């Protein structure tokens, strides 16, 4: 039984060390051969920038569709793999007009294989739909509470310099349903402007 | 025999406990190896609601004096209706500013005609019978512009404006781009 308790205590100590605490009950050292310590750097950008500006977009009226593109670029060195996701969408301008317009808008999001793929107001984009389904639009404000939208970024760890570089070409389309009134809840959205922020997170995994 | 069996069960329990401990220890050591690095970037999007400009906005003109409906001195600002506009226009909102005070009226609450006829001109200051209305006071310039009206109360961008000046009981019109 003593041996059992000894093992239990030993395991707790090992677990503590593994968890990063500084519980040093034993002190021992050995010299090992030369080791290579590899560090990794991960960067993610939208349109090549940490903060990418889209717009101001215009001509958004009932029944219209306003498209825009943005590219997610990622690089992960040090034998890292790379994943990316749309972490959040949040309203940047909380004024009543902005919020009313934001809440009335619908959206769809596609990931495409090429930056020259179709992304227009008149035709359903090519590629894989990440938000909305079956070519339909979904409320933009639901993106605020949607789980992370995984953005396929492609390449893994096969680069010669062990750096994974990948891009995802995204096409987002905004719309207002055809029956949207000019005034919603007493707020006139006729000439309203809204702004919102999309946060993209890149993760290096090994 | 009984003592040997008992020692065997005890050894098995010991092995199970030891295996569990080793598993816990391996998990504890392995946890940092699954750590992830992350980085974020943002896209700031701004968008405005509204209909696009019609005909570059320059679709309000001045006319007259000319004969209209057999009224020889017909004078009025008017505009060409855009029958083929997409989306379709249902009417216009007319704005008048005199001495800094702006008022507005719907062009028509009933039939859109002749708004929906691209070939017709809509006289803003007299009716089809030749009766004038919406005149400004003598010597007070009146600035006039219009906005197209769409379904559900949406208004399009404003047109250019014209200035109407009434002098000695007549209308003298000047246009600004």
Comma- or semicolon-separated keywords:
heterodimer, A: 206 residues, mainly beta, 6-stranded antiparallel β-sheet, 3-stranded antiparallel β-sheet, elongated, B: 177 residues, alpha+beta, 5-stranded antiparallel β-sheet, 39% strand
What does this structure look like?
The complex is a heterodimer of chains A (206) and B (177). By secondary structure, chain A is mainly beta. Helix content of chain A is 13%, strand content 40%. Chain A has helices spanning 2-18, 96-104; strands at residues 42-46, 51-60, 65-76, 81-91, 106-112, 128-131, 138-139, 149-151, 164-175, 183-184, 187-188, 193-205. In chain A, the strands form 3 sheets. In chain A, strands 1, 3, 5, 6, 7 and 9 form a 6-stranded antiparallel sheet that branches. A 3-stranded antiparallel sheet of chain A has the order 8-4-12. The model of chain A is unreliable at 7-25 (pLDDT under 50). With 177 residues, chain B is of the alpha+beta class. Helices cover 16% and strands 39% of the residues of chain B. Chain B is elongated and about 115 Å long. The N and C termini of chain B lie far apart (113 Å). The model of chain B is unreliable at 22-35 (pLDDT under 50). Classes of the chains: A mainly beta (206), B alpha+beta (177).
Give a short summary of the structure:
The complex is a heterodimer of chains A (206) and B (177). Chain A has 206 residues and is mainly beta.
Reading the helices and strands of chain B in chain order gives HEEEEEEEEE
Sequence of strands across the biggest β-sheet of chain B: 5-4-7-8-9
Shape of chain B: elongated
Over the alpha carbons, how many angstroms does the gyration radius of chain A reach? 25 Å
Strand content of chain A: 35-45%
Tally of alpha and pi helices of chain A: 2
Strand-residue fraction of chain B?
Answer: 35-45%
Helix content class of chain B: 10-25%
> What does the main sheet of chain A amount to?
6 strands, antiparallel
Oligomer: heterodimer
Number of strands of chain A: 12
Integer-rounded radius of gyration of chain B: 39 Å
Residue-averaged pLDDT of chain A: 80
Mean pLDDT score of chain B: 70
Q: What's the total count of β strands of chain B?
A: 9
Q: Portion of residues in helices of chain A?
A: 10-25%
Most residues in contact, chain pair and counts: A-B, 71 and 38 residues
- Would you identify the regions of chain B where 5 or more consecutive residues have pLDDT less than 50? 22-35
Low-confidence stretches of chain A: 7-25
**N/C terminus separation of chain A:** 40 Å
In whole angstroms, the N-to-C terminal distance of chain B is 113 Å
């Amino acid at each position: 039984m003593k041996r059992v308790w000894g093992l239990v205590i030993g395991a707790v100590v090992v677990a503590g060390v593994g968890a990063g605490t500084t519980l040093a009950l034993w002190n021992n050292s050995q010299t090992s051969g030369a080791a290579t310590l590899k560090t990794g750097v991960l960067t993610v950008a939208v349109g090549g920038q940490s903060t990418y500006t889209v717009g101001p977009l215009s001509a958004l009226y009932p029944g219209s569709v306003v498209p825009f593109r943005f590219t997610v670029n990622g690089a992960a060195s040090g034998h890292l793999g790379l994943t990316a996701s749309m972490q959040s969408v949040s309203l940047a301008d909380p004024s009543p007009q902005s919020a009313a317009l934001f809440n009335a808008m619908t959206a769809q999001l596609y990931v495409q294989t090429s930056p020259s793929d179709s992304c227009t107001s008149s035709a359903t984009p090519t590629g894989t739909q990440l938000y909305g389904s079956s070519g339909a639009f979904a409320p933009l404000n639901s993106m605020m509470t949607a789980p992370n939208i995984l953005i396929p970024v492609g390449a893994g760890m096969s680069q010669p310099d062990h750096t994974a570089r990948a891009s995802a070409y995204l096409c987002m389309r905004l719309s207002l349903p055809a029956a949207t009134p000019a005034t919603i809840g007493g707020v006139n959205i006729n000439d309203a402007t809204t702004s919102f922020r999309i946060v993209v997170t890149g993760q290096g995994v090994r | 025999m009984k003592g040997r069996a008992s020692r065997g069960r005890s050894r098995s329990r010991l092995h199970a406990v030891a295996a569990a401990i080793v598993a816990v220890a391996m998990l504890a050591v392995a946890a940092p190896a699954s750590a992830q690095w992350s980085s974020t970037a943002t896209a700031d999007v701004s968008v405005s609601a509204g209909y696009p400009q019609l005909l570059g906005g320059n679709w309000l003109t001045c006319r007259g004096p000319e004969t209209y409906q057999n009224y020889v001195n017909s004078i009025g600002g008017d505009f060409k209706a855009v029958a083929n506009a997409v989306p379709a226009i249902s009417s216009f909102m007319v704005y008048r500013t005199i001495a800094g005070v702006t008022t507005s009226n719907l062009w028509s609450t009933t039939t859109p005609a002749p708004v929906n006829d691209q070939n017709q001109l809509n006289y803003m200051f007299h009716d089809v019978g030749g009766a004038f209305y919406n005149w400004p006071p003598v010597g007070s310039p009146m600035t006039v512009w219009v906005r197209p009206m769409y379904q559900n109360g949406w208004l399009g961008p404003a047109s250019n404006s014209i200035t109407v000046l009434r002098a000695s009981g007549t209308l003298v019109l000047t246009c600004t781009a």
